[in-house]
Amino acid sequence: MKKKVLLACIVLSVISLLAITAAFADPIPNIDIKVGDSGGKPSTSSLSILLLVTVISIAPALLVLMTSFTRIVVVLGFVRTSLGTQQMPPNQVLIGLALFLTLFVMTPTFSSINDVALQPYLKGEITQTQALDKAAEPMKKFMFSQTREKDLLLFMKYTKTEKPKTYKDIPLTVMVPAFAISELKTAFQMGFMIFIPFLIIDIVVASTLMAMGMMMLPPVMISLPFKILLFVLVDGWYLVVKSLLMSFNT
User: Fold this and answer.
1) How far apart are CA 146 and CA 197, in angstroms?
2) Which positions carry the signal peptide feature in this UniProt record (predicted)?
3) Which of 39, 45, 73, 122 is 20 to 30 Å from the Cα of 220, by its Cα?
4) From CA 163, how far away is CA 149, in angstroms rounded?
């Protein structure tokens, strides 16, 4: 398991590097410090470095939107909100769990990227551009399998993109946002289903307190132990994680 996690981290880092370096026609420029007046015009190297730093800063956000992380972290957030446990589990725990589940779900995709793009590039068999194109295909395949047709058509019509023959012909500028809103919709649907049993408990407790005339007693204080008890008895974390994993197999 440790080897798989390490491999996934390495693949993610290399994909980021390939995506960044592919944006430049020339190698990363050297930093040259000169004393004197440059005539008021910024050098090409300075602009390239500024662009490089900007791309590096947004690379993690792009990688998050291109994986299963979005759906997982949103659903886990719904679980905590529906329980009403405030900051329990803490954000660090939820984010850490979401990251490891993401690596688990994306392992087949990362392995494919490692075989077709990373290893040939490290051996010098293909160029940076070719490696980036080959690495994009497994990611497109994963995103396409989880993206709704309606969401794809929305961005294709807006960009006036011709109907592709296969998912390989869909540009990432169309695939990524369509995949992101599809993931959000799926996550909210799962979150709604999680909310229902806990909402019923809140309604029953609030109605009981009103019938007993205890209007000044907060219903949340009484319903919270019952919600936690229900969640523990049905092994809630197991069911939530199982539902998340099964949702990516469809």
Assistant:
1) 27
2) 1-25
3) 73
4) 12
Structural domain boundaries enclosing 160: 2-23+45-247
161 within a domain of the structure (yes/no): yes
Residues 6+ apart with CB under 8 A from 134: 113, 116, 117, 120, 126
The answer to whether residue 177 sits within a structural domain is yes
Amino acid at 43: S
Count of domains observed in the chain = 1
Instruction: Give pTM, 2 decimals.
Output: 0.71
pLDDT per residue rounded down to tens, the chain (250 residues): 444 444 444 445 545 544 444 443 444 444 444 444 444 444 455 666 776 677 677 767 777 788 888 889 899 988 888 888 878 888 888 888 888 888 888 888 888 888 888 788 777 777 877 878 888 888 888 888 888 888 888 888 888 777 777 877 788 788 888 888 999 999 999 989 988 888 888 888 888 877 777 777 777 777 888 888 888 888 888 998 898 888 887 5
CA angle 157, 183, 89 (to 5 degrees): 155
Residues present in the chain in total: 250
